[in-house]
Write a structure and sequence with these properties.
With 243 residues, the protein is of the alpha/beta class. It has one domain: Alanine racemase (TIM Barrel, Alpha-Beta Barrel), CATH 3.20.20.10. Helix content is 44%, strand content 15%. It contains 8 helices and 8 strands, in the order αβαβαββαβαβαβαβα. The strands form 2 sheets. A 4-stranded parallel beta sheet has the order 3-2-1-8. The chain has a 4-stranded parallel beta sheet with strand order 4-5-6-7. Helix 4 links the parallel strand 4 and strand 5. Helix 1 crosses helix 2. The radius of gyration is 18 Å and the shape is globular.
Length: 243
């Protein structure tokens, strides 16, 4: 980007952020919630480090990556931007056990623990490196074959064993809703909330985080209890129309 393009993009990022925060506030109000309960995660997987820096300047403080190698590249890149020293990065995408080493200790939260095997790998890495990882269990509430994650029944069965693993703290649940179906999205989000409440009550624990809601459905997710919305196109793409 030349100077003029950068200035224009920076202005877009700041204006769009205000629009998103307004939509979150409106959705929270409809549900009788405090909008401060909802965190905005800017999914930076499709942009470069300079764009992440501009987003930081626009007010974003938390970013999400879905590939470990891109996470590592971003973390190395922002070292050239001292003002971003406090930036938070989360892992939100499918994580293979052989990539755990690139994630543990480098992120604030792993959203996508989709199996007991993966949980065990994160725990093992954490023990060997003296790092405790905050994680979410990914639950395939909608039952779509194309989506990964525990089924609700699998989550119920696996939870006790996962909670017993060292160097790992389960902070809540994550899901992805069916695309382009408002009613199905609402069922997925409310189903995740109900499952969280059930598991928390059964275990006498608090699972304060519900990670759900993306560019096309985040207001619905906020209405149904989401505490983290994961927004990529909405944040970074000027051609995306915020509906």
């Amino acid at each position: 980007m030349d100077g003029t393009e950068e200035e224009g993009y920076a202005a877009f990022l700041a204006e769009r952020r205000e629009e998103i925060l307004q939509r979150i506030a409106e959705a929270a109000a409809r549900a009788g919630r405090d909008p401060a309960e909802v965190s905005l995660l800017a999914v930076s997987k499709t942009v470069g480090v300079p764009q992440v820096d501009l987003a930081w300047r626009a007010g974003y403080r938390a970013f999400g990556e879905n590939r470990p190698q891109e996470l590592v590249r971003k973390l190395k890149g922002i070292a050239a931007y001292p003002e971003m020293a406090g930036a938070r990065f989360d892992m939100i995408g499918h994580l293979q056990t052989n990539k755990v080493r690139e994630v543990v200790g480098n992120v604030a939260l792993v959203h996508s623990v989709s199996s007991t095997h993966l949980a065990e790998a994160i725990s093992k890495r954490g023990v060997s490196h003296g790092v405790t990882s905050d994680v979410l269990l990914e639950v395939n509430v909608s039952g779509e074959e194309s989506k990964s994650g525990f089924s609700p029944d699998e989550a119920r069965t696996a939870l006790e064993g996962i909670l017993a693993l060292p160097a790992m703290c389960v902070r809540g649940l994550m899901t992805m809703a069916p695309a382009h179906d408002t009613d199905a999205a609402r069922r997925a989000f409310s189903g995740l909330r109900d499952l969280r409440d059930e598991l928390a009550e059964r275990g006498g624990l608090e699972f304060p985080i519900l990670s759900c809601g993306m560019s096309d459905d985040f207001p619905i997710a906020v209405e149904e209890g989401s505490t983290i919305v994961r927004l990529g196109r909405t944040v970074f793409d000027p051609s995306y129309v915020l509906g």
